[in-house]
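Re-running the complex after MR caught last week's input typo. The corrected sequence lines follow. Everything else is unchanged.
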Amino acid sequence: MSAGLAATPLVRALRVPDDAAAFGAREWDLAVRAGRRSALLAALAARLAEGPGLEAAPPAVRRHLEGALRLAAHHARALRHEAAVVREALAPLGVPLVLLKGAAYVLGGLPPAPGRLVADLDLLLPRAALPEAERLLFRRGWLTAEPDPYDQRYYREWMHEVPPLRHAARGTVLDLHHALVPPTGRLGRDPGDVAARARGIGDGLRVPAPEDLVVHAALHRLGDGEHERALRDLWDLDRMLRAWGRDAAFREALEARAAAFRAERAVAYALRAAYAVFATPIPGPLLAHLERRGRCRAGARVVVPLLLRAADPARPPAWRGEGAARLAMYVRGHWTRMPARLLLPHLARKAWRRRHG
Amino acid sequence: MPETVGALGRAALRARLRGAGLALRCGPLVWRVRSPLAEVARHLAELYAGYPLAPDGFADYHVGVAPLRGPRRWLRPQVRFLFDGEAPFHPLPRAQAAACLEWGMNWCVGAHGHAWLVLHAAVVARGAHALVLPGPPGAGKSTLCAALAYSGWRLLSDELALLDPATGAVLPLPRPISLKGPSVAVIRERFADARLGPVVPDTRKGDLAFLAAPPASVAAMDAPARVAWIVSPHYEAGTRGARLERRRRGRMLVWLARNAFNQAVHGEAGFDLLADVVAGAECHALRYGDLDAALAALEALAAGEEAAA
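Corrected-run output:
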């Protein structure tokens, strides 16, 4: 267990909500700030509500917790509406709509749902259907949010999703994926059957199978450059593994799917990180199997601590070590997505533009 | 242990701003402010003297105004607003450091204050009866609010009306009023006791100065008020007098909801709350070209209500 992150008031309260009843003002101060930063304040409120109640917090803190729950409820309402609108717009395609990440958790009522904030709607569609999907969505007011031609090319040539679409009137963001991992990446390979294995949740919507959701969450955490939300990703994993991990069929399916994605390494790292922070129960044989197949027991000693440092919302960004850890994870995230001959020019270009804008 | 910002003294104030932060309270909220800048310290010393200091521990918002580093600072010094160490906005010229703090403090409430339904409106009160003045920038909301606050009304806020979902009342947040362009001179000439900060030219809102909240309003920062009147002001330069026209409540409700910061976050309960507030208030539009006439019209409105009560 990592003493640093695991000992922070936010993580302690998320793990054992009853412990929060003994918090002083200073600990609440840290918990609210870390929660706001990592988008986990509403999750904390939901945990307290099902445990000791929001009354465990002093009135000034309770106001923030109640506000966070309101915000999460608003996100869920908006998400339900967007999903209905998109389903109607894409009906002519005649393909199932598979929700990913936060949208799947919240609309599917899955374990990470309580207090989960969802800013974007992520959808998985067959690659061949994407051009027609973009045309249909454009007619309903969805425009590209990445007008820059370089960024457009970056997405379309190298990524597993089209550039984000933003609705002209509502400002909501829609991400269309054709795979769970970039085709150029080394983190894993999408076996192409996630949609076929997905489960219906009514209203013509589907969510990936539990083991695919876990593999995707792990791939996303290891491959994504945005580490501000890293703690939230680990919390999602914790919720899913706690709910499903005792089921032998789930563990077997997770092993098989990690292999199908060639993502044993990513899943092993992510599970180790979740354990280090939230004491997530990880079946020992499962982890040993993943690390043997991924040949990454040694690598975990380097990558997992880096991941934990980058995930710590309690440290201000001015802290230099964190900047370095975030940069290392940013470069690493890209490294796993692109071959070096694409990566180096890309990072150089991004750095130049950040400086000279 | 000093109890107000003013009792702290300039040196101790600067030390706190440079160190662990100055925890100042306004109404239901505590901001912990950090800044190494002398002009931020001066702004707080002059315009926040009567505000209570909060005990160490929990603060609602941790904010700061910091200078940007890098070679450009010698040519064109800039500052940025920090919210818990992160910079949500573009930097501003250093001359606008105080405005940067004030706008940033407003932003905290608009973006994160989901404990309340936050309307974009000025609010003043007579006793426990609140007058809400909603209006887009340029409608004369701030000028009218400043004039009212120095003519016997109590200031609750010049920008943010916090509606408490539990009671439907407005909670005061009496911070300095931002005055733009010609209204700076209007207020300065009219009210000798008005305490104004320095005029900053050329902000993105034109010339700008902050006017201190009247001490009596600061002292009453914990006294909520119920909405009795909703009046949307329309300043029409060159016209004479002032006239109040009744507005339909339905229209006012839609208009207020659209101009709230977080109506959607509150969902159906927020709609019901706002509908109840509007149903319990008299709704008017105020067209005026003359400030004295506008004050008199609102005075008459308040007298009618008090007579009826």
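None of the earlier attempt is carried over here. Chain B touches chain A at residues 28, 30, 55-60, 62, 84-86, 112-115, 264-267 (CB under 8 Å). The mean pLDDT of chain B is 92.
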